[in-house]
Amino acid sequence: MSKNQKSPKLNADLRELVRTNAECYGDKILYVYKENGEEKTVSYNENWNRMNALGTAFSRIGLMGETVAVIGEAHPMYMTAYYATTCGGGVIVPMDHDLSDDQLASFMELSEAKAIVYTKGFNHRLTAMADKMPGCRLFIPISPDEEEAAHPLTQTMDEMIAMGQAALDAGDRTYLDLELDRNKMCTLLFTSGTTGTAKGVMLSHHNLASATNAACLSMLQFDSTSRFVDALPMHHSYEVTCGHFAISNLGAEMFINDGLKNVSRNLATYKPNSEMLVPLFVETMYKRIWNEIDKKGMRQKVETAIKVSNGLRKVGIDMRSKFFSQITNAFGGNLKVIVCGGAPLSPQLIKDFDAFGITILEGYGITECAPLVAVNRMGKGRLHSVGTAVEQCQVRIDTSENDKQDEDITEYGYPTGEICVQGKNVMLGYYRNEEATRAVFTDDGWFRTGDIGYMDKDGYIYITGRKKNLIILSNGKNVYPEEIEEYLSRIPDIQESVVLGRKNAQGEVVITALIYPDPTRFEGKEKSEIFDAVKGQITELNKTLPAFKQIREIEIRDTEFEKTTSRKIKRYTVN
Predict the structure, then answer these.
(1) 412 Cβ partners below 8 Å, 6+ apart?
(2) Average pLDDT rounded to a whole number, residues 459-470
(3) Does 177 have pLDDT greater than 60?
(4) Domain 8-23+40-180 belongs to what architecture?
(5) Which of 5, 151, 310, 573 would you label with 528, given CA atoms 20 to 30 Å apart?
(6) CA 274 to CA 255: how far, in whole Å?
(7) Class of CATH domain 480-573
(8) What is the DSSP string of 376-388?
(9) What would the mean pLDDT of 200-216 be, rounded to a whole number?
(10) Three-state SS across 4-21?
């Protein structure tokens, strides 16, 4: 454990998290960000004060305890809205900024959000569709232009904070003295899907605090000297819990990335020593490293240097910083640790990064678990594994639906089945969907993740397929295959389908549909004719779907999918 932090602080709720962070780190910088070309900072004290000011403003206008949505690009005020809402007994609804207008309006209606906070990219767009969101009585732009600020339905973030601060200065303690119900829903996260199929994950202060505490206890390599470049969308549960909550609890500093195209530049400029990323970023970094090596005709020399360096390390001599400084300087030169979750990484990639001097720790999480479930610890990682369960969380493998323990089950040497989780991080349930909630909990209260895997004798978890509920794309986007399969089932020519994520020629995980056509509709037809007919229908379907949900690859099967005795497709056998 670092000398800079004897032990991580454990908090019972988000208000306590922000308050104790301010007490411990005061005027230390929490956020560095750019706005209108100018670099700005937010300290730990400012984070606490802004939360209280906005929360008090909410209390003055009748929004305290209500549901508030937030959407947009990464910005410190995004988190101010998150904290102020949840710590005032309300419910925050972080929205995916890629939602269509209709989806956004539907989620606003479903969640009964009374206000929405938004960043610069949503100026004019939201107010223009106000008639589609009649329940939303206030629009709160973070960086408005004059026209947006003058709109009759808007109250700018600066105005809200000024209002709240004036009330605080006058002695208003309505917000400050509110007693929180830590077991009540405070965050509503919509899964990927249309309004008819999306599920709203309900998380409490208790859930979020438990997951944050577990993250801090599991990642003791991070401390108040850690510097991060934030690269993930702020509605992402991994980003919020393991990023903003846990990183701030350790007293670290975060540069908020100003656009995906600037990630590489910002890594080089702000020189982070630690990162939390999804596979797409890590795989892109890896490809760029080797492409640059090949351009210079240095592959053989670098591979030889890796062998020599690895040999020296075995006898206690670490020369990586000298041998591979040209490679690591592209990421600022200080990067030592990357925690990566969302999809499996190639073991060779992990080995090569380690050879260059950067440790990659794979983890595993799911939104319903707030989201952290497991992670590899520093010095104790295992290839192919997502690590062991985090503190205050238990994992077991449910093999009850397996027909028999045949080769399909035992090829890894351990029983394979559905990964189930029990712990303080597990969600309250799905919003207004008792049937879906019941379906994902076992009779004895364990949450069914829908992911398939096994656990070795030391408790290390191995995921063999994320195919029951989620497809996790390389960019971290979550897609529930059942939604896409539901659309496919409406096509008469298709009898059965399984939708999964597969890597394309570029190495990116894309939505792939495996199709078993209705044989009665294609008697005597060549496979090429069948493919063309199905492809044409799927092309039409794609026109109705958001870009990240569109089917990119199609495979026609000659036989039905293998099924259980209850006639359910064995998803884990499909690859």
Answers:
(1) 454, 462, 464
(2) 72
(3) yes
(4) 3-Layer(aba) Sandwich (3.40)
(5) 573
(6) 12
(7) alpha beta
(8) PPTT---TT--BE
(9) 97
(10) CCCCCCCCCCHHHHHHHH
